[in-house]
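User: Show me sequence and structure for the first protein, then do the same for the second.

Assistant: Starting with the first protein.
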Amino acid sequence: MTTPRGKAAIAAAATFVSVIVLIKAGGAGAADWAPNDKVVLVTHATPGASIDVFLRTVADIWTRHKLVPRQTAVENITGAGGDKARRHVAVQNSGNTHMLFGYTPQMMVAPLRTRSEISARSFTPIALMVIEPTVLFVNADTPFKSVKDLIEGARQKPKGMLQGGGAFGGPPSLMGKMMGDEAKVEIAFTPFKTSAESVVALLGNHVHFIMEQLSEADQHVKAGKLRALATSIPLEQYPSLPTFESLGMKFRTLKQFRGVVAPPGIPPEAAEFYVKTLDRTRGTPEWKQYVKQYEVVAQWVVGKAFTDWLEEEEKTYARLLRELGLVK
């Protein structure tokens, strides 16, 4: 006898297959479907967070260029480490063709740590669109002028070096732990409800450093309040900022990806509509300005390739969490 959870898994898998087949076939029938109600873009994050900025950029482009025939709005559903948002989309709105979900690494890691049944395969894949750089920031008033200074500070103050960030288990916290392990220093992690709160904490000198997206803290660097010490990838805005790799650091720099998924059980023609609409989004001046302003790396992965990409990322995080002793 198939359990309700098993039925849900079968339905999700069937959605993955049907969407992939339709996209591969060229989307026949997609032109026959279009939203007839407001489209809601859901995020687990608070307003101003990087995934929120990403979704609001998409929503503004859809409205300005009339890419979607109805209104588009962003809804922030916070709490429970993103579980409220995940369940809202995957369970409460299963089959809803007028809802999309901004998918990030945190939405992949949290279920792995809590052994939740709501995983990447609980959604209909639409598109991977950008990867954001991860930057190490310190308060400009601190004596830390380089990552070497920061590591030495941690060595001089065992257990006293504090990294701030969002929920533990996301890429910033894992990268901070790996950096400390490689340098053989102990770095404590102080979680905040949101990445934005960790930026505020750094501005107030309540933590020693954060590792966040450029979009979260760039304005404070330009204002002279924060200092960037290193980045996961080269940045055009800060050409002299070293990458972790160029500093000789070997730890894995995790991908801060931004993708779009839909609830399970939507018809393939609806999924294909959103794939084509997001593809048109990428060609607008506003999208190109977003990519340039936040120094994100534009990506375009859809269909089976996106499904495979999500599965590989999930395996990577599962293996890393086990290696770090964060899950059994």
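Switching to the second protein now.
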Amino acid sequence: MIRFLYSKNGHIVEGLDPAKVSSFLAEPDAKLWVDIQWENSHEIQWMEQTFRFHPLTIEDCTHRNQRPKVEDYDDYFFAVLHSSTFRHAEKEVDTQETHFFVASNYMVTVRDEASPQLDFVYQRYKTETALWGRGIDFLFYRVSDAQMDSYFPLLDEIEDHIDQLEDKILVSPAEDTLKQFFVLKRDLTFLRKVVSPLRDVFNILGRGDLSLVSEKTAIYFRDIHDHLTRATELINSYRDMVGGALDIYLSTVSNRMNEIIKRLAVVATIFLPLSFLAGFFGMNFQIMPYGNVRLFILSLSLFIGLPAVMAWWFYRKQWF
């Protein structure tokens, strides 16, 4: 699927004949946004034939899971950005990869799935003429800013999840809680691997190293860089929280095990003298002591009184 949105002489129009794109871009005051959600190789082939992009960038578009980056070419720059998403069916954190070709009078976006952030900006540019007047580099900023903002709601959810799991640990630690912590740790590691290179990308854009990014727009890219720096700090702090929670979990489980062992030791200690008395009086005496009533009462008192005294003593010492 290919969408065309362009501005010319203060008018915004959606839709354009793909065969007329080259001639349209040659006209003055023409600005074009081509959005490709590719389903087969025909869209990529059309893009390659129309814009004559470098073969390496075309290869990146067809081979997904590219690292976030920005590369400068003769009359355009190529960027790979990732926005965050949570796939509820699989219950896992993932990213949506978008490729950008940004020139002075056009921008091409390539993706393989729906992007709510990109669609939101697309709808705004369909109605707001003033946005087109700020240049194609500002259009790239608006899309990238919307995509980078997608990380913060996800990080808020992760923080709430960590708080809930920490409460569970203190009340009733379970193996399922431990599994959830490991999933969180994996997700945070994945996010850090994505956000760190994204921060480098916007550092390059904010420094004004690219000729197609004006100084006025570079200020906005520096703002995105600050947001990503904050996101990186949050991710690192959440990883520390998860690590601390795992230590608390292991400590809690160990303490519970120690309590169980202590109670078992108390029970064994109480029955130890009973075992001795039962063994002693169960030996084959020639004259059984129970022939004497007083000895019978004494032994029975020991069987009852000694465990009771030991149990009272352990309770007083708060051993159980």
